[in-house]
Amino acid sequence: MGLTANVNEQEVRKFSDAASRWWDEDGEFQPLHAINPLRLSVIERHMQLGGAQVLDVGCGGGILSEAMAARGAQVTGIDLSQESLTVAELHALETGADVSYRCIPVEELADEAPGTFDAVTCMELLEHVPDPASVVAACARLVRPGGHVFFSTLNRNARSWLFAIVGAEYVLGLLPKGTHDHGAFIRPSELAGWCRNAALVLDELTGLTYNPVTREYRLTSDVGVNYLAHCIRPGDD
């Protein structure tokens, strides 16, 4: 990993310290397990995973990577936390999931293998790196013309501060305190601009909400807090 890698070492350390708990569905990563079927449904709404070459950027312990592999995709997962990748590899051995994991910055992989993947997923990562626009650009370079790129992140406004930080971290305890920095959240307009600059077409935004009474997540048109974006790299003429 080069000295200029787009990485917040404190963020990587935070996830590395929690790596052993990635697959504890009652632990701090419980929300990721809960929303994973919803993330998968958004992906499958736009493409067939069976036989597709898919890159999962910021894969962590492999929750989404394994789910896409189970649908028949050939998945490569990358992350900058070696501890998380070790957990992902061990879990894949236990489950038989066919996922290839690498510890490499997405920008470096984009230089190495441009236009390689039918789809790139980058979930809950952009708000954790110093230069999210660089990640968006690298994802765009990695996907083939006509391919798909999926992002998920959090909107930056008063409501997201109330729900995603005060509510999720301090009141409901869904996430450990300090998980997120509200100043690093990303408005959809900002993400749309980065996509345009990377020659991606932003096709759809989908919101994700949590009901504290039923303790259920659901997809919605409300992108005020959590949201997912589907982008397309235009095909060659």
From TrEMBL:
A Pfam family that this protein carries is Methyltransf_11
Reaction(s) catalysed by this chain, per the record, are: a 3-demethylubiquinol + S-adenosyl-L-methionine = a ubiquinol + S-adenosyl-L-homocysteine + H(+); a 3-(all-trans-polyprenyl)benzene-1,2-diol + S-adenosyl-L-methionine = a 2-methoxy-6-(all-trans-polyprenyl)phenol + S-adenosyl-L-homocysteine + H(+)
Entry's CDD domains? Answer: AdoMet_MTases
**Which SUPFAM superfamilies has this protein been placed in?**
S-adenosyl-L-methionine-dependent methyltransferases
The EC number(s) given in the record are 2.1.1.222, 2.1.1.64
Q: Where is the Methyltransferase type domain?
A: 55-151
Q: Which residues bind S-adenosyl-L-methionine per the record?
A: R39, G58, D79, M123
Q: What does this protein do?
A: O-methyltransferase that catalyzes the 2 O-methylation steps in the ubiquinone biosynthetic pathway.
What is the protein's name according to its record? Answer: Ubiquinone biosynthesis O-methyltransferase
